[in-house]
Amino acid sequence: MLIAPPLSLYIHIPWCVKKCPYCDFNSHAQVGGIPQEAYVAALLADLDRDLIDFADALGGRGLHSIFFGGGTPSLFSPSSIGRILDGVADRVSFDRSIEITLETNPGTVEHGRFDGYLAAGINRISFGVQSFDDDKLRRLGRIHSASDAARVVGEARAAGFDNFNIDLMYALPGQDLAGAARDIEQAIALAPTHISHYQLTIEPNTAFASRPPALPDSDTAWDMQEHCQQMLAGAGYAQYEISAYAQAGRRSQHNLNYWQFGDYLGIGAGAHGKLSDAVSGIIKRRAKQRTPRAFLEHAGQPRGIASDVALAPIDLPFEYMMNALRLVDGVPMGEFSLRSGLAIDTIAPIVEAARSRGWISEDADILRTTESGQRFLNDVIALFLPASAEESKNHHA
């Protein structure tokens, strides 16, 4: 039986100062001024359309978390962010104390802005630091320096922020194990409540894909992950997801909702949303027009929606596992039925196949990857693709 899960809101700000060569996100280099006022109005029109179209599925649910992502949301002024949050509050119920995160680039936050963001309603900051090595930052095409990163973290704390994340990447061009460890040391020294630590990968349609840099090999990358994971644990940052580490009580509530196959509205250029209708049993994904120009022109209108897809039952096991298996502690086995509407029997042969390879724990009540399963997570998740799932069922019939 499908149960409506918690509901979050993702707000996409698509502009950035320049496009990083590794980035495959929907971000667009700033050319001239950003039409902040028009974009704020378009965001709220976009939200109005979603609230109308998904009224039955929403069922009066309030918001569990809000996340401003990009692009670089810190290019928008505190007053613009405040108008967005006030507009959301006029339309959807939420307690102002819920986790409300703003992604920031250390090179785009002006001195004094943090006071304004806090007053606007932001209570969590995510800093896209990536590295504390200026040479590595240059190779990644970042516009900030290591000293910029340390400075803005201090400014945010001085402004009153006590909950913030630092994004770090490892297996960077020219990086060795000692360099990856130094990045962790410097991040820990800034005492964030949360650290995201993820491996640089070469994604299609990026500058790095057309001109690939030399990266550490897979064994070296794995050594970096294990060593840095031990350093983080020793400093009080517990790993709870493949690339996420947090102090006690400081896990990202917004990302946890994604990983637990929760629901979310997505507003803004190229934003994606997922909504579960407990009455009809249908789970839908919606995407918005990708380019800022098309979004601004059509927001709130039918043409503003790039795609609307009802997920087929045969695709739901993969959709669910792609998120849930990232969690180190796993998820209760029964959550699969509540979040997908499918019986546990649907995935039993596939889970057994993964257990036989040592990728899923033997605990019958918890769906959790082993250490080997975490290392080969993509292979584990691939077992739940429709073709692979059918093969597992036939094998165990």
Question: Would you mind describing this structure in some detail?
Answer:
With 397 residues, this protein is α/β, with parallel strands linked by helices. It folds into two domains: 251 residues, TIM Barrel, CATH 3.20.20.70; 68 residues, no CATH class. It is built from 17 helices and 16 strands. The chain has a nine-stranded mixed beta sheet with strand order 9-10-8-7-6-5-4-1-11, sandwiched between helices. Strands 12-13-14 form a three-stranded antiparallel beta sheet. A hairpin with a 4-residue loop joins strand 12 and strand 13. The longest helix is centred in the N-terminal third of the chain and has 18 residues. It is globular and about 55 Å long.
Lay out the secondary structure.
Elements: E1 7-13, E2 15-16, E3 28-29, H1 36-53, H2 55-58, E4 63-70, H3 78-91, E5 99-104, H4 113-120, E6 124-130, H5 134-139, H6 146-159, E7 164-170, H7 177-189, E8 194-199, H8 207-210, H9 218-234, E9 238-241, E10 244-246, H10 253-259, E11 263-267, E12 272-277, E13 282-288, H11 292-298, E14 305-310, H12 316-324, E15 331-332, H13 335-340, H14 348-356, E16 366-367, H15 371-375, H16 377-382, H17 386-396
Helix pairs in contact: 1-3, 3-4, 7-9
Q: What is the rounded distance between the termini?
A: 25 Å
Q: What's the CATH class of the largest domain, please?
A: Alpha Beta
Alpha-beta content class: alpha/beta
The CATH architecture of the largest domain: Alpha-Beta Barrel
Tally of separate domains: 2
Rg is 21 Å
Determine the CATH topology of the largest domain. TIM Barrel
Average pLDDT across residues? 94
Strand order of the largest sheet: 9-10-8-7-6-5-4-1-11
The proportion of residues forming helix, as a percent range, comes to: 25-40%
The biggest beta sheet, please?
Answer: 9 strands, mixed
Overall 3D shape: globular
Poorly predicted segments: none
- Please, how many helices? 17
Strand content: 15-25%
Tell how many strands the DSSP assignment holds: 16
